[in-house]
Structure formats: structure tokens, C-alpha cells
Amino acid sequence: MQRLRTPAWIARHVAMVVLVVGFLGLGWWQVTRAAGGNALSFGYAIEWPVFAGFVVFVWWREVRQALRAGSERPAVPAPPVAADAEPVAATPAVRRPVRAARVPAAPADGADDGDLAAYNRYLSWLNANPGARPGDYPG
């Protein structure tokens, strides 16, 4: 429960209370307007408490998620080691990204498509001229 007493969580708790009280107050205001003869206010009189309920629902879900995140710590299983094998170092949890060279791919079956080549020239021109608009293309 200590996790829910941090400054960020206290601000969330206060925001939830303020929003719920405000939404219920607006709902009551709409009820009084509806009683005064404003037929449209009946819809709003129902809508504001629904908003308050949604705020409580989201707050409760966030609280449960925060409490569950602290209690669940996934254990990393050790790789199985055979009796006669040397121990192998475990793979790191975060690995470095693989860098790949960006080269244009060759056509799949070697066929040159004129429309595709023209479109690729157009895209190359757009890439070479980042401030240009598509209508500025000279080709």
C-alpha cells in the first residue's frame, strides 16, 4: 500500500475525488434544471453520474494494476544444464538491436515494370527534396 502514497498517487486520488464530486454536482444541477422544465437536462442528469462512475472505474483499475505490478515479479528460469556439459552464461534480458543495411531490393523475378520504376523515381525525388510538395515533381 506504500506505493499508493507517493506524491503522484496522492495527486491521482485528489483528482479522482474532485472529478467525482464535480460530476455529481453537475448532475444535481441538471436535475434541478430538468425539474424547472428543461427537457434536455434529463439526459444530462443521467450523463454526469455516468461520467463520475467512469472516473471511479478508471481509478480503481489503475490502483489494482499498481498493486498487482508490485507483487508480480517474473522469475527468469535458468537454462537446463546437462550433467557432463560446461555451464553456459545466460543470455542477457535486454539485447542490442541488430543493424541492417538499407539497400534497395532487386525485383523478385527480374521483370522491369515501367510504372513501378517511375513511381520509385518519384519516391526517390521526394526523399531527396524533403521540403518539396508532391506537385513540385518535375517528372
Describe the structure.
The chain has 139 residues and is mostly helical. It is 54% helix and 0% strand. The protein has 3 helices and no strands. It has helices at 7-35, 41-71, 114-128. The termini are far apart.
Which properties best describe this structure?
139 residues, mainly alpha, 3 helices, 54% helix, flat
Stretches with pLDDT under 50, minimum 5 residues: none
The helical percent reads 40-55%
Separation of termini? 66 Å
Work out the strand percent.
Answer: under 5%
Structural class: mainly alpha
Number of DSSP strand runs: 0
Radius of gyration from the alpha-carbon trace, in angstroms: 31 Å
Global outline = flat
Brief write-up:
By secondary structure, the protein is mainly α.
What's the SSE blueprint?
Layout: H1 7-35, H2 41-71, H3 114-128
Helix pairs in contact: 1-2
